[in-house]
Design brief:
about 250 residues; alpha/beta; 7-stranded parallel β-sheet; 8 helices; about 45% helix; about 15% strand; globular; binds nicotinamide-adenine-dinucleotide
Amino acid sequence: MAQPPFSLHGKIALITGAAAGIGRATVAAFSKAGAKVIATDRDPSGLERLPAGSDGLRTAVLDVTDPDAIAGVVAQAGPIDILFNCAGIVPSGAVLDTTRQEWQRAFDINVTSIFDMSRAVLPGMIERGGGNIINVASVVSTIKTAPNRAAYAATKAAVVALTKSVALDYVGKGIRCNAICPGTVDTPSLEARIAATGEAEAARCAFVARQPMGRLGSAEEIAAAALYLASPESAFVTGHAMVIDGGFSL
Ligand code: NAD
């Protein structure tokens, strides 16, 4: 019988930042498509709250800034077909509001983690003759910027650049690498940014107004793009930075 579109049947997918928001929605989308998912996050209680019952769902506590922990989780995971690098933070501030420590932390979590995760999974993918890496960047990157996002925009631009390098360097090994560039997405981290302003209603309206569609994106909409990029239907797509932003970048 023919498989439904976007089937990940028989695939093993490792997801970082899987306990909340876009990562959590992607755990559900990949599991529903038949993948065996290894959901990782630094937040153990969030992992425990993932819906039970997904066939083949495994969880592992993983802080992506710890290269030894990355090596351990990847070794335990067995062969990984799909790596979804989703863990990330959204630091606020212009250059003069950003300390060197904050800048470094943003790069550690948003960029160096993807470098370390990629280094951990690529040898196995090369040995098996193929693999698929999907990195979560942002439309605030090489595509556009936003006020008070200096470190964030720089990290996500680096994610887009790293994605293209991995795509080009390993295309001959059957490995694809793409990035997703979301606009403003309704997730726990966005809620926290809204609450932190102290003027939640006005802040929410301003975030909504950034999208010409007049609404926030949903984590499920980003997960649907991840599913497409993870699936054989996107077999000719590599090195792409896919914008999903309700028109924010227009
Ligand atoms: P979220 O905060 O709702 O979820 C992020 C998850 O990542 C959390 O479970 C958190 O525990 C985990 N995490 C954070 N640091 C980690 C670390 N060091 N190691 C392991 N796990 C860690 O965030 P979200 O909004 O779903 O964002 C997910 C990704 O999407 C991020 O890379 C973010 O930059 C990107 N993004 C989000 C938006 C948005 O508007 N929400 C827009 C563009 C891009």
